[in-house]
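sry for the spam today, last one i promise. struct tokens for design, 277 residues
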């Protein structure tokens, strides 16, 4: 140990020495106080919301507004194809809220007992459309036109894991063109990847939701809208997942989603909010 002694030859030195000691005491107290506050501060609350890729823009805005209304809360989003997301949940991914683009995925989770009973609700709907690159010379006025010789590549979602792909397959069967276009299909993992293929002109056409078509209007345009009878109704479902990190906060997020403010945000992005009790 090194001992440092201060030798004060006059009163001025005594004053300086005393001031330094006081300063050191105050500094030590401040450091201790900050350390104590950090140690005993309430941890920041957060929830993870897994949602269909088509909900990305609307949910991101809803998340920001929700965080602003709940100081210290963080909403983490995980977007992807609904089929891939339920595989993650079934594998134990730490998800608090799940929003699917089809009832089928929610049915599967419910049958496995992975959602909180009574928390499931249908909250919005959408439309299925054909998009083509802006400036395209292809004359596509209906789904049936996809079978024409001029259309060589058609981007679609994965039939097994992506609801938009499944709806597209149903529409192809309804219009009786699936056998003739099978060799033209380019499969994507989710609806935004389908849109990317079309926007980059890597596909002559693609099947997406009407809401997604709004985000690349300078690069892709709607050429045709599917008859509602051609596919299952596009319904978005919402539910709390069991073993959530914060079930109360998950419920509050869902309540905000379903509030007038939340529905207005979804409506701004083209979704059709559904009525509910």
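last one done:
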């Amino acid at each position: 140990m090194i001992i440092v002694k201060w030798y004060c030859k006059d009163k001025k030195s005594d004053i300086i020495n005393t001031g330094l000691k006081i300063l050191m005491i105050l500094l030590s107290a401040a450091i201790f106080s900050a350390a104590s506050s950090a140690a005993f501060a309430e941890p920041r609350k957060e929830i993870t919301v897994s949602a269909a890729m088509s909900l990305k823009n609307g949910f991101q805005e809803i998340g920001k507004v929700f965080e602003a209304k709940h100081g210290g809360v963080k909403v983490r989003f995980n977007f992807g194809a609904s089929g891939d997301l339920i595989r993650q949940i079934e594998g134990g991914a730490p998800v608090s809220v799940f929003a699917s683009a089809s009832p089928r995925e929610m049915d599967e989770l419910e049958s496995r007992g992975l959602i909180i009973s009574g928390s499931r609700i249908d909250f919005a709907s959408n439309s299925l459309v054909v998009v083509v690159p802006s400036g395209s010379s292809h004359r596509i006025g209906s789904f049936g036109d996809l079978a024409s010789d001029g259309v060589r590549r058609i981007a679609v979602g994965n039939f097994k894991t992506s609801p938009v792909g499944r709806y597209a397959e149903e529409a192809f069967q309804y219009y009786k063109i699936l056998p003739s276009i099978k060799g033209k299909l380019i499969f994507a993992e989710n609806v935004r990847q389908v849109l990317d293929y079309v926007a980059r002109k890597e596909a002559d056409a693609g099947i997406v939701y009407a809401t997604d078509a709004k985000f690349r209007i300078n690069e892709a345009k709607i050429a045709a809208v599917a008859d509602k009878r051609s596919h299952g109704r596009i319904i978005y479902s919402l539910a709390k997942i069991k073993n959530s990190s914060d079930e109360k906060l998950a419920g509050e997020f869902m309540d905000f989603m379903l509030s007038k403010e939340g529905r207005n945000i979804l409506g701004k992005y083209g979704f059709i909010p559904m009525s509910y009790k």
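The first helix runs from residue 11 to 40. ok im logging off now
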